[in-house]
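Sequence only, no structure available. Ideas?
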Amino acid sequence: MNLSKSMNDEEERHVRENMSEEELVILDILTRPAPELTAEERNEVKKVARELLARLKGLLVLNWRHKIEARSQLKLAIEDTLDYGLPRAYTPELYRQKCSALFEHVYESYPERNAGVYA
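Reply:
I predicted one. Tokens follow.
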């Protein structure tokens, strides 16, 4: 029962947040467990999550994990997008943590260009 209810809650969350599963994962990485955000700041972070996902998908080339340049471009895209779009509630230390967590997520979730846990 609990599993069924939690799945329904998550499905409702997709509708409530108006985001795909992939976007929600990025949003969760950026907002959990910190920082505390206002509604306006949360909307900014949602926009960043959408932009970042679109940008990252364009950078995932064949065998990207094995190419230093491809990994570097991915890290730089994450850092640039977060630096430009995140609200001031993110401290420099928190920014670095979120960049690292997002790169790790992409590395684990997207082994190849058109293959990933969301495909």
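The radius of gyration is 15 Å.
Hope that gets you unstuck.
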